[in-house]
Amino acid sequence: MSTGRVIVVGMDGSPRGDAALRWALEIGAHAGDTVRAILVRPRDTLLPGTSFAIQPHGRVPEAGYSLDAHVRDLGVETAATVETQQVHGDPATELVTASADADLLVLGTHRGGALSDLVLGSVGRECVRYSRCPVLVITPEAANRLAPA
């Protein structure tokens, strides 16, 4: 008896992360699969030479944010099993680590001008380079185009 696939989705509480999760639930996953939504809260890191500056790691949901509630509130129906996980650490490192037990890693990205289209965010870039499974990077526009009617 074969087990279903595991699809890991990097979440940050943004519309880009939501689009990636919707794609995974509506298109990527089937009955028997597991979709694992992972929110990585970065550790606060002091910048060299300062005692107060925090190194930014992109968008971080506000205190009190519940990934479970957020996923539930998206209201996407799926035959897959949905799991949520919140961890602390470097977002790229944690997602690459999670990719070791996954069949697919799904990340959302923005659509911008010509320059931003050429530059993948640092987390996305590291995941594409070092992931141990295939990586799908999808914009909200592309996710909407591929959504079931």
Structural class, from helix and strand content? Answer: alpha/beta
User: Considering the protein shown, what is the CATH homologous superfamily?
Assistant: HUPs
Overall form:
globular
Biggest pleated sheet: 5 strands, parallel
Counted by DSSP, the helix tally is 6
Percent of residues in β-strands: 15-25%
The rounded Rg comes to 16 Å
Distance between the termini: 33 Å
Question: Mind telling me which CATH architecture this is?
Answer: 3-Layer(aba) Sandwich
What is the CATH class? Alpha Beta
Write down how many β-strands occur, each being a DSSP E stretch of 2 or more residues: 5
Order of helices and strands: EHEHEHEHHEH
Helical amount: 25-40%
User: What is the number of domains?
Assistant: 1
Low-confidence stretches: 51-58
CATH third-tier fold name: Rossmann fold
Strand order of the largest sheet: 3-2-1-4-5
InterPro entries: Rossmann-like_a/b/a_fold, Universal_stress_UspA, UspA
Pfam families: Usp
Protein name: Universal stress protein
Domain UspA: 5-138
